[in-house]
Amino acid sequence: MVACVVPICCAAADREPLSIMRVSVCINSIRSMLLTMPPLIRHAYNCFTTYPATTRRHIAEQYASTRQHNGEIYMSIISNTESESVAQPTLSGLMTLILAIGAGFSVASIYYVQPILPQIGHDLQLSLDGMGLVPTLTQIGYALGILLLLPLGDRYDRRKIIAVKSAALTAMLWLCSQVTGPTALWLSSLLLGMAATLAQDIVPVAAILAPAGKQGKNVGTVMTDLLIGILLSRTVSGVVGEYIGWRAMYQLAALSIAVIGIALWRILPAFAQHSALSYPGLLRSMLQLWRSYPALRRAALAQGLLSVGFSAFWSTLAVMLEQHYQLGSAVAGTFGLAGAAGALAAPLSGSLSDRFGAAKVTQLGAALSAISFAALFLLPTLPLHGQLALIALSAVGFDLGLQSALVSHQTLVYSLNAQARGRLNALLFTGVFIGMASGSALGAKAMSIAGWPGVTLLATLASVVCLIVRLRSEKTSA
Questions:
Q1: What angle do CA 70, 409, 298 make, to 5 degrees?
Q2: Of the candidates 295, 305, 316, 418, which has an alpha carbon nearest to the alpha carbon of residue 358?
Q3: Are the C-beta atoms of residues 373 and 416 closer than 8 Å to each other?
Q4: pTM over cut 0.85
Q5: Contact, 182 vs 41, CB < 8 A?
Q6: How far, in Å, CA of 251 to CA of 246, rounded?
């Protein structure tokens, strides 16, 4: 019946391949031209080459940083003893599609476990608390991976990082399918969560390879598949677990990540190193970035608030459907399809961000989420079928609002410092997952105290506060 209310239509977004312009500086070429240069310029060059390699790198990075405008890097200098440019390939439609699929399947890996927990508990003889540790440790691993591993994207070649994480995620998924005891399952779930941050390494690639003015559209396409992976993973896992078994679900997931990892290795170029900081230095620099950019703090806070409502709704929906409508988890999974319909429309938000500004789209996304959640207060006034239809339509609305705001917040954050996108993304998504965890805890508490109206009130208030944050941000910027 939900499918009748919310038809889902998949359409591919236009992708116009353009290239990123870069100015190439090569010391070998300069050296060959020295004979024709005035003595003063030759003397300046000789002085520069006598500096230590670290000093030359610092000078080059300082010069490159002055050539940034609206997130576009006009110069990329990478070397220890000499400089050379790396020509980036055109971001083709096929490349964007593979990036989007990779992000979706990667993030889905941490949600497959939720509908098959009862089967795992029965097979491994786990208590209720033991079963609950599996998704908890997976989410903890994901948060740790964001904080500790994501910054490496600014220090090392992203192509190699994606390859290593793909292999690690494949191994952890396969290990989960082979465990025979709780300890091995808990440990592999923690490591699985850390490796699943592969999705967050893929998203910045779409921004890096996109031409100026098109970052929002391409990030929106990739982020749409990421959210769809979150929403549909429960439905897919429930069906596979019921008919084939929970171990088969993990094995199929491992196979999908292996195939995607190989595809990404073949199509992605090598990426320039944007920072010479050591790993501890990268972690310390994250605190400096957080202090330096008020726009980053506002984006993390606003998106975290939207995530509170999102998580509160989805973490309590199945319980509410069972208590009020005597409907099982399979029906709850179909509402995930309704949410995916909203996510499919989100690439439009990327294009709107490029045209009207990301700040405006974040306000529209927060307002749409607040209206969608508030509409659930009308449930008692409707007949049974109308109530289920309203829940589905609300899921479409707030998922579209959340996804639109997320794409726009990422566009804002990526424009702050092109050489620190990995660390900026890590800080943004730390706020997102703090909101997710808080929404699950607060949603369960609200459900136990005030029932579904309490959850609705929590989600609505969180979205309204997010809208206030974005409106105040615009006034502050002005």
A1: 105
A2: 295
A3: no
A4: no
A5: no
A6: 9
Query: The tokens of 215 are what?
Result: 């970052």
Nearest 5°: phi and psi at 278?
A: -70, 170
Tokens in use for 66? 């002055």
SS3 string of 275-340?
CCCCHHHHHHHHHHHHHHCHHHHHHHHHHHHHHHHHHHHHHHHHHHHHHHHCCCHHHHHHHHHHHH
To the nearest 10 degrees (0 to 180), the angle between helices 329-344 and 294-325 is 140
Q: Which domains does the chain have, with CATH numbers?
A: 27-67 (no CATH), 89-273 (1.20.1250.20), 282-478 (1.20.1250.20)
Output the pLDDT for position 60: 46
3-state SS string over 185-232? Answer: HHHHHHHHHHHCCHHHHHHHHHHHHCCCCCHHHHHHHHHHHHHHHHHH
Strand partners, 72: 69
pLDDT band at 456 (very low <50, low <70, confident <90, very high): very high
**Residue 35 buriedness (CB in 10 A; 0-12 / 13-18 / 19+):** exposed
Lowest-confidence region among 44-48, 169-173, 363-367? 44-48
CB 153 within 8 A of CB 204: yes
Coil/strand/helix, residue 250: helix
Contact at 8 Å (CB) between 332 and 452? no
Q: Exposed, middle or buried, 357 (CB in 10 Å: 0-12/13-18/19+)?
A: middle
Residue 171 CB coordination number (10 Å): 17
Return d(Cα 401, Cα 463) in angstroms, integer. Answer: 10
Write down the residue that tokens 């476990």 correspond to. Answer: 113
- Single-letter code of the amino acid located at 250: Y
| 3-class SS of residue 131 | helix
**Strands (E) located in 21-150:** 68-69, 72-73
Radius of gyration of the chain (CA): 24
What are the φ and ψ backbone dihedral angles of 111, each rounded to 5 degrees? -110, -10
Distance in angstroms (rounded) separating the CA atoms of residues 227 and 229: 5
* Residues whose CB falls within 8 Å of the CB of residue 370, separated by 6 or more in sequence, listed in order: 401, 460, 463, 464, 466, 467
- CA 346, CA 330: separation in Å to the nearest integer? 26
Dist. CA 250–CA 134, nearest whole Å:
14
What is the spatial distance between Cα 87 and Cα 90, in angstroms, rounded to a whole number? 10
Buried b (16+ CB within 10 A) or exposed e, 395-408: bbbbbbbbbbbbbb
Q: What is the pLDDT of residues 312-367, one digit of tens each?
A: 887 777 678 777 888 765 666 677 677 666 666 656 766 776 777 778 888 999 99
